[in-house]
């Protein structure tokens, strides 16, 4: 590969593909922390000049993490579809960007080449894109998945209803769930991050969510975001596991930090599929990712955090997931310092995941010590809506009282749906209308929590005080 250029009277040379990709990345605090960011804006421009002229074939053949020592690299390259890659194999990264943006290139054409793409190719092209390019490319791509609802259809926007509670109190969880349902949220799933991350607590929460769902015959899926080994054990105890959750990253070492291997993920998927709980499909893996996870695990191999994030999408693609969620600002300002960096990362993650054929959602979020605020989140949420994001989060008041971070609220989801004429998943929208909770467009018709509680006879879904709760 040609990894040097003369620019403005200065010779810029990069030792390998990883160094080139890192230097070409937009500025972010994580790459500075890792000591791999471009030294200045001129070096960044030089790296992008080289990257634009780099043949896609060269990127395919130059791995950033060694094949011999990393199972993620092996799995990605061993699954590479040379036939799908053939139509663009003659292009450079810059030419491929122009192809992606061309009016003649539609979502079907992009989907056809997707199995021939590697994460490094996708990360590379994103580094040549302005924010509007990332939005324009992503908006062309629809990735549709099914379990009990159909996610990703044109004209829809899903919401993960996130009723977390600092003590896993059943009444508190049920009340937050009701609040979300009355505002048309929950079609992507009802998912709890447990405060008591143990088997007994997981089983209790799974039964609680399943009882709520069955009480009202809600077409949705539930998930308790615990480790896959806990979920497998819950299945062995007869618990009603719908979606199988796991955090993943882009290298073998970073995944080891999460306590997983690719074979363990396959075992977890098989265990959940054995229950046959899906009604219209069997895609049931739910993955969460985030820029900076590999660096925080000291397993980034000198690769920039955005490229490592896209490698995590390469892992997700192996398991045909129902949902993938980039929790974009959750790890903190050490990795994404401010609103500008969070917005850019969210658009990158969404676009890159879709290019790899994934059903991408984004948790539009930040921590309270980041240089960001809810105005930044409003901006990112709106841009992602335009870009066709599959789903976002619905958190009561946008303030997660268990995880202590700021996300998007049920009201925020309604804003985007109204602004962009989006509806919930069709099965969920039909349910809401049949229950008298929503009109034909999916907009809520219940105006107060008390009216909703009466309409749904909430007391028959809530557990009795203290029942089964430590």
From TrEMBL:
Q: What is this protein called?
A: Ethanolamine ammonia-lyase large subunit
Q: Which organism is it from?
A: Sphingomonas sanguinis
> Which Pfam families does the UniProt record give?
EutB
The record, for NCBIfam families, names: PRK15067.1
Q: Which domain of life is it from?
A: Bacteria
Q: How does it assemble?
A: The basic unit is a heterodimer which dimerizes to form tetramers. The heterotetramers trimerize; 6 large subunits form a core ring with 6 small subunits projecting outwards.
Q: Which residues bind substrate?
A: 160-162, 193, 288, 363
Q: Which cofactor does it need?
A: adenosylcob(III)alamin
Question: What does the protein in this record do?
Answer: Catalyzes the deamination of various vicinal amino-alcohols to oxo compounds. Allows this organism to utilize ethanolamine as the sole source of nitrogen and carbon in the presence of vitamin B12.
Q: Give the reaction(s) catalysed.
A: ethanolamine = acetaldehyde + NH4(+)
Which of this chain's residues are annotated to bind adenosylcob(III)alamin? 194, 246, 296, 402
Q: Which gene encodes it?
A: eutB
Report the co-factor binding details. Binds between the large and small subunits.
The biological pathway it contributes to is: Amine and polyamine degradation; ethanolamine degradation
Q: Which family does it belong to?
A: Belongs to the EutB family.
First-level EC class = lyase
Keywords assigned: Bacterial microcompartment, Cobalamin, Cobalt, Lyase
Q: Where in the cell is it found?
A: Bacterial microcompartment
- The protein's Enzyme Commission number: 4.3.1.7
